[in-house]
Amino acid sequence: VDSLQKNNPTWSSVHVNVSMTFLLLPGVCVPAEPSAPLSEPSSEDTLLLVWFHKGGKPPDCWHSFGISGCTITIDRRLYSQAHAVLIAHRDVINIGDWSLPQESRPPGQKWIWFNVYAPSNSLRLWEYEGLYNLTLTYREDSDIALPVGYVIPNAFLDDFPMASFAYRLDTSSTSSPRPGFVSWVVSHWGENLERVSLYKHLKEYIQIDVFGGVGTPIPPGKETVVELIRQYRFYLAFENSQYTDYITEKLWNAVQGGAIPVVLGPSRKNYERFLPPEAFIHVDDFPTVWDLARYLLVVKDSPSLIELHLSWRRDYSMYRPYEWREFHCTACRVVRERKGRTDVVQHLAAWFYS
Length: 354
Fold this sequence. Notes:
With 354 residues, this protein is of the alpha/beta class. 29% of the residues lie in helices and 17% in strands. The chain folds into two domains: 2-6 and 149-319, Glycosyl transferase family 10, C-terminal domain (Rossmann fold, 3-Layer(aba) Sandwich); 31-147 and 322-349, no CATH class. It is globular and about 65 Å long. Residues 179-351 form the Fucosyltransferase C-terminal domain.
């Protein structure tokens, strides 16, 4: 407990900078559906071609996010006119290299490597060295960085372009009793995964309610998961891989649901770039699984420790990007800002695994 209480002022000053960095990188405004049909791109617009499209109309970057001078298209016939092509790595791997653009690349056109998966689930990275010009991932050191979620100090919320869509963190969770103790929603089991091994060991000491593919079924939908988490004091935000910045919706579902996240993933230091140190419990903080279980039991019955882990919520709001639409428009904006620059991603595999 003492270690969690140290250096909070330091974290606050550092985290403001991190939050503002993320704020500047997305560069977004109020999202909404376009109020008028999309027009043809003007000669001055930056045209981004989304090579693999998941369905639905491309976003109008101005009406949706306040990003001017950007047009998103899914029409491959415009390949030769596109200033940039956004290519999802997972789609290339699943379909095959033949799915990449086969025409010669027009001079100055940038290819963007888009990936939201962990390195262990991103095959054959070494085959694409020198092919791409920009990276778009969850990693903070990507050319275009969009994490799954982040928090904004309420003191800076008025300056945050997506303020009306930021989620004001519920502070009643610090005092309200919760009927459940520990929950875990898991879709991919995998007996060889560290998180499964840790769960099996942890449940020898404490009660853990498991939901999803191998537990009690729950209706699909993000909000359903969040509502479930609201019934529990702790949530196991266990990642399936441990890599730099690979912090997925598991953590942010717990934060939104007002539970105390118990995290397995990258290092504590990495998590502290996204949340205050007392906002989560890292499994690496404990020498044994029994010590972790014992601490959860102590916290459950200690109002002061619950307050320690949840009081930070009074000063922060949470934002979760609007996924594909926001990714595409942010990518287009960065391409527009980098016109005239020649960038080549030379060591894709080494960087992504680092």
